[in-house]
Specification:
The chain is mainly alpha-helical. It has eight helices and no strands.
Length: 190
């Protein structure tokens, strides 16, 4: 990474893809949309909005579990694989960005939502499509910016990045299945 230009906060703010280069930010956006729909559905008693919220939840919740799992795993090895030294976060924002959304979405699913009807095959297809869409987006941002949003991508060759995104898609699908199992355990029927 020695040839990587100095990435100041200003440079990152002006970068192609802005903060939406980061999976964490994309996850936070989907979580926010999910919770906004839940709030609106509660305020209006709208079944239609509630259904939209449940559709978003099928993507947002496993994605946030994936983000929490990947982030926690990588940080336990080396924090600078995920966040450059000059952008390290304090404990409260770190947990707020990387764990709280997964916990809150999981609680919402387990206690306040209907069971998901997505099959493992559908979850794997959806998760893999999401993983590869994000990979293509990351590569597009790299072509414009000359740097990757996460330092780990700088260390991995293209075949290893492909493997990482395949693994992430499978892990997200696995998260969906674990969440469905927990739902059945908490709510009966499993």
């Amino acid at each position: 990474m020695a040839d990587q230009p100095e990435l100041t906060g200003l440079r990152r703010n002006d970068a192609y893809g802005w903060h939406f280069q980061y999976l964490t930010i994309i996850g936070l956006l989907l979580a926010t949309i999910t919770f906004a729909q839940a709030s609106l559905a509660d305020l209006t008693s709208s079944y239609r909005i509630s259904r939209y919220k449940n559709v978003f939840s099928v993507v947002a919740t496993p994605l946030e579990v994936l983000i929490t799992t990947l982030y926690g795993s990588l940080v336990s090895v080396d924090r600078e694989l995920v966040i450059p030294k000059e952008f390290q976060l304090g404990l409260v924002p770190d947990v707020g960005f990387h764990a709280v959304p997964a916990v809150l979405l999981t609680i919402d699913y387990l206690l306040f939502s209907p069971p998901w009807t997505i099959s493992f095959r559908q979850a794997l297809s959806l998760s893999t499509a999401f993983a590869f869409a994000y990979w293509f987006w990351v590569e597009q941002c790299y072509r414009h910016n000359g740097w990757y949003p996460y330092p780990i991508f700088e260390y991995l060759t293209m075949p290893w990045r492909i493997l990482l995104f395949c693994f992430s898609g499978a892990l997200m699908a696995g998260s969906t299945e674990v969440l469905k199992f927990l739902y059945r355990t908490v709510n009966g029927g499993g």
